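Bug report

Summary: C-alpha cells for Ribulokinase differ between web form and batch submission.
Environment: batch mode, default settings.
Steps: 1) Submit the sequence below via batch. 2) Compare with the web form result.

Sequence submitted:
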Amino acid sequence: MTGHNKGGILARTECCVVGVDFGTLSARAVVVRIADGTELGSAAFDYPHAVMDTVLASSGAPLPPRWALQDATDYTAALRETVPRAVAAAKINPAEVIGIATDFTACTVLPVTADGTPLSAVPELVDRPHAYVKLWRHHAAQPQADRINTIAAERGERWLPRYGGLISSEWEFAKGLQVLEEDLEIYERMDHWVEAADWIVWQLTGCYVRNACTAGYKGILQNGEYPSRDFLGALNPAFAGFAEQKVAHEIGQLGFAAGTLTTEAASWTGLPEGIAVAVGNVDAHVTAPAAKAVGAGQMVAIMGTSTCHVMSADRLAEIPGMCGVVDGGIVPGLYGYEAGQSGVGDIFAWYVANQVPERYFTLAAQAGTSIHQYLTDLSDVKPVGSHGLLALDWHSGNRSVLVNHELSGLILGSTLATPAEDGYRALLEATAYGTRTIVEAFVESGVPVIEFIAAGGLIKNEALMQIYSDVLNMPVSVLTSEQGPALGSAIHAAVAAGAYPDIRTAAEAMGRVERAAYTPRPAATAVYNRLYAEYLILHDYFGRHGNDVMRRLKDVQHEVRAPQVVLPGVGHTTVAPDRGMPA
C-alpha cells in the first residue's frame, strides 16, 4: 500500500495544486488554490482520435457493433497541452504547485507490456483492435458478461451480491475475457490489463499503482480478494490466471500519493519535478468531495454523456443492480456505492443529430442559442405531460438497475402531430425516471438518500434540473464548479501533498455546492408520479419479465448487418462533448 505526506496542514496555503480530468472526448486541467478551492486557471484538449466506434483510425477497418476504442497517446498529449496552459492561465509561478492528481472515465482499460507500453503502440500490433484502449462504453463484451453472471450465480460466488447480482460488460473481467476469446495473441502479449486511471499516473510517476476505487468497483476486488482461479477457469480454462497474472498489483488508497513527478513528466507539464502525484481515481467518485458530499446519504449524479451516481453510507447493503459497493470507495470510513445510467447526454445528442429537422437549427441560430437549449425552451413552456409521450432511456443499454446493455431505447405515444421538441422533452424526462429507479432501489434496500446533488455539464440546463427535482420529489443541489471532477482531483492532490490531513477536511475547505438550488413543484410532481408509474410498467415489461424483443432485434441486426459505410468527417463518434449537453 502506498503512503503519503503526513506532515499535516501546510503553512503555505497560498500554494496550488493541479487536477486533470480525463473525460470521454477531452481532458481538462484546472489550477486550484489550496486555501479555499478557488479555481485560478483551466485548459481543455480534445482527443485527436476521439472515440473509435465505427472504424479503427490506423487502418480504416470497420469495427463491429458496440465497440468503443481510444488511443492512449491522446492521454499523454492531453497532459502536455492542458497543464502548461492551465498554469499560464492561472498566472502563477509553476513552483507554487505542490501536487497533481488525475481522474478518468471507468471502466476504461488497456493492455500494456511490463514497462507500461500500450500494445497499440507496438508497431506490428497497430492494426489490431484489441490492442487499443477499451473505453467505458465498449459494450461488445456482453456475451462474456452474461457468462460471468450465469456461472457466478450458479456457483453462489460471494462477491456477486456486492455488485447488485450482475457484472457489467463495461468492466475489467468481461472485457479481458473478450480479448482472450477474440485475439489470443494480444491477450498473451499483455503483461498488465490496466485501468487508464492508473496508466496515466504510471506515466507521471514511473510507478504502477492500482487505485482502490477502480479495483473495487470495476475489478471485482472485495475484502482483498479477486475472483478465484477456479471460477475464472470455469469461464474459460485459459482465463484461470487472469486475476493474478494480468490484473493483481499494489493497491493505492484514495488521497494517498502514488509517487512523485518524474523528470520526463515534469518536462511535459512544466511542473516541478518531485511534487506529489495522487493515486488515480474515477471521474464520478472524485467529484463527491468537490460537491462536499463526503457524508452518508449524499448522492452525487455526475451528468454528462452518461450519468454516474455515487454515494457514501454508514451501512453495507446489497442493492439490486448497483454497480458496486466498496469499503472506502469514495472516502475512508464509509461504504462507497455506485450506480449509473449508460446514456444521458449521448441520448440527447443522438436525438438532435438524427431526429430534428433542419428548420429547428435555423431558428435556434436566429435566436442566438444552441439547438439543445432551443428545444428545451420550446418544450418547457408546455404543461407537464401535455406531449403524451413516454420514453425509455436505454439507447446505450441499462447500467442500473437492470444491468443489461442489450436493451435499447423507446419512445411511446408518437403521432403525426408530435413535434421534435416533444420527443426531446420525453427523453429528458426519461433520464430523470431512470435516476428515480436508482434512488428508489437504494431507499428500498435500507440505504437512505438524504440529498441529491447534480454535477457535470448538464446542470447548465435549468429546465432539466427542475425536471429532476419534480420527478424525484426532492430538492436538487448543484456543484457550482464547471470543472467538478478536476476540482475533485485537485482536492485529492492537496491531501496527497500533505496540505490537509484527510479528504473530508480538504473537501470542506475546497469544495463548492449550492444547496437545494431546485425544489419540486407539487403540481408537476403529481403528474410525473402518474407518468413514472407508466414508465415502470414499460421498464419491467422490457427489462424484467422475459420479453427480450430488444435483444432479438439486435440479434437480427447483427446477423444481416449491412456493409459499413462511413461518411466523410464522421469516422469517429458523434456523441456530445463531455458534460456539455445541453448547454
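Above is the batch result. After comparison, the two runs are identical; trailing whitespace caused the diff. The radius of gyration is 23 Å. Confidence is low (pLDDT under 50) at residues 1-12, 565-583.
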